[in-house]
Amino acid sequence: MITPPDTLPYRHVLTLPTTGPAVRVARETAEQVLAEWGVGSQDPCRDPALLIVSELVANSVRHAAVLSPNVTVVFAGGPDTFAFGVHDRHPYRPALFASAGIAPGRGLATVMELTHGLGGSAVVRGDADEGGKSIWITLPLRRNGRSHDR
Q1: Is the dihedral of CA 12, 81, 20, 126 positive or negative?
Q2: Of the chain's two ends, which shows fewer C-beta atoms within 10 Å, N or C?
Q3: 144 beta partners
Q4: What is the pLDDT of residues 72-98, one digit of tens each?
Q5: What are the tens digits of pLDDT across the range 34-46?
Q6: Of 26, 39, 12, whose CA–CA distance to 139 is shortest?
C-alpha cells in the first residue's frame, strides 16, 4: 500500500512563474530532491517521475498561465513512497482516467500510463475555493525490489 502524501515525513515546496523555464527548473529540482532523499538512478520510479513532473508543469504553463501566474510543485517522500503535487490556479480539472487517447496531446495519457505502470496513483484535488487544483502523483520506491533505507 502507498502512503498518503500528507503523512510523508520529507517535504520540499517549489513555486515558480508559470513560464517555459518552469519546466526545466521543476525537473532539476525533482532530481535534486530525489538524490537528497536517497533515491538514485537505479530506482525504477526515478526517471518516470522526472518525466511526469515535467509533463504536469508543462501542462500548467501551456493551459493555466492565463489565470495562474505561478505554478507550485510540492514534493513529499518517505521510506517507500515519493509523491508530488503540481498546483495552479486555473479552475479546470482534467479527467485523468479519460485522457488516454484523447487529442490533441498525449501528455496526461503518458502521465497515467507511467504512474499506473509503476504501481502508483494519481488524483486531482480542487482548491477549497474552486479556483485552482493540484494533480497529485504517488509512486512506490524500490531499490532492486527493496524499500529504501534512509
Answers
A1: negative
A2: N
A3: none
A4: 999 999 999 999 999 999 999 998 875
A5: 999 999 999 999 9
A6: 39
